[in-house]
Structure formats: structure tokens, C-alpha cells
Amino acid sequence: MSAPPFELLYTREAEKVIDDLKAKQQYLPKLKKVPKALRLLEQAGPRHPGLHSHDYQSVPGPGGVTLWESYVENRTPSAWRIWWIYGPGDAQLTIVTIGPHP
Length: 102
Description:
Elements: E1 7-10, H1 12-23, H2 28-43, E2 54-55, E3 68-71, E4 80-86, E5 92-100
């Protein structure tokens, strides 16, 4: 683990979610919140208090690594989250997916 700022890398799934947000008018409110949360993750790091980052124990990450969850929203029905892992390199975070909390 390294200190911020981090370089954010995206899986194809995460890129698809972002593209879908941009393409559908109904997701306009999310389109504002997701980039803000990603900027916080990149610039301030996962320890930023507004992100409420914690390990996500329900599902292992790719290859069995620890999967982390950060908040896009809170106290909202089906609040959105960002799921990510550390790496592959120092000062890098890989965004696995983005979407509503299950």
C-alpha cells in the first residue's frame, strides 16, 4: 500500500458501467456522484472519511485478493458503491466495478 495520490485503473466491467451512466439520462444524478467519489479515491485515497472504505468480505476479489468497497452514496435506497483492489503496482488501485449495494 502506498500513500495518495493513486493511479486508478479500470476493468472492462467498470468502464462499461461508466459508459452506461453517460449514455442514459436516468443516471444523470449518479453521473455526478461517481466521478466525485473516484476523484476522492484517487487524490485523497481510500482513507478519506467520506468514502467509508472497508474490506468487502462477502465476495473475494479477483485471484482471491481482498476486495474493498467505498461509498458513492450513503443513506439512499440501493446506494451505489465502488468495489476495488490494491494494485497491480504501487500507488495503483484497480476499480473492479461500480453499482448499487446488493
